[in-house]
Specification:
2 copies of one chain form a homodimer.
Chain A (H helix, E strand, L loop, with lengths): L9 H8 L6 H11 L7 H11 L5 H13 L3 E4 L7 E4 L8 E5 L5 E4 L2 H13 L2 E14 L8
Parallel strand pairs in A: 3-5
Antiparallel strand pairs in A: 1-2, 3-4
Chain A binds a DNA duplex through helix 2 and helix 4.
Chain lengths: 149, 149
DNA sequence: ATTGCAAATGATAATCTTTCTCATTATCAC
DNA sequence: GTGATAATGAGAAAGATTATCATTTGCAAT
């Protein structure tokens, strides 16, 4: 019925690799996530998923997102605003970080190897192995002419 | 009735300095916060505040905590677990950061000037002025003998 | 010290996000 | 294809936070 070489999204494959049952809904959500390069919250994911398969439930999106996070496929982020936001987890290469525009709320990703190793060193010196880094810096554009707040 | 040199807590003074009306409840909450060197959530703050003044309402704690945060007196933190936790905001000196023990959930504070300036530099290079840094690293004690996770 | 007014409070309802329940449906190994 | 097992849908429930509104309080001017 379907050729052996899967036409599935990278995340759907990852899902299978982790031994998770690959249901239609999970395939849809995995596709939507693979297709996203921003940081959607659950409601936004639900909206996008419904576009692909209208009979999906928001409860399933919550469930799947949690499952994917527990399996290292997704990372949960908190940028304020009260709801969790998600993005595809980084691979073997270093973490990436987030700069949040204080005025617009826009999220800008960045990487920095010096930061990677500095953090790793600090944590090691404290007697720990680094598991996760959660870093977001809030900044305000210099450009904006402000009346000396 | 009361001497001019206030016997209020440092945070109560700060509250007055910011032009906020200093009510009995705010004085109590400010005292409790000045007295805390951990990262209590609202319910825990409420518990401590009630010890001082039993007729305080949890709604007021929520309101006050929000007010203090908006005025730079408190900082809200998210260490996972679904509820916001608060701590007194840093003064002029550099921010401090948090290391969270992956196994116990214990929060360990640390400072690092190299990290301060590296972050400042990165943000500046991206065209922003640094407003806030939210950094928590999750780590696992090396000591713990684990069967090669 | 008293008064007046705007703002804060208490108690609870309402809201918002997330999780749970349970009957139905779909997946995967055989 | 069949069956056991797990996933889903829809809505209820839970947990955290905010809003409502009548009453009380702080504070500035008197």
């Amino acid at each position: 019925m379907k050729e052996p070489n899967s036409p599935d999204s990278p995340l759907a494959d990852l899902c299978r690799q982790r031994g998770l049952k690959l249901t239609g809904q999970r395939r849809t959500i995995a596709f939507v996530l693979s297709d996203s390069d921003d940081h959607p919250d659950v409601e936004e994911l639900y909206r996008r998923a419904v576009e692909v398969d209208p009979r999906i439930s928001i409860a399933t999106v919550y469930r799947t997102v949690r499952l994917f996070e527990e399996n290292g496929i997704l990372q949960r982020r908190d940028f304020g605003g009260g709801r969790a936001r998600y993005e595809v987890a980084d691979g073997d290469h270093g973490d990436h970080y987030h700069l949040i525009d204080a005025d617009t709320g826009k999220v800008i990703e960045f990487e920095n190897t010096e930061l990677d190793s500095l953090l790793e060193g600090i944590v090691r010196q404290m007697g720990y192995d680094l598991v996760t880094t959660r870093l977001s810096v809030v900044g305000r554009t210099k450009a904006k002419t402000r009346s000396r707040g």
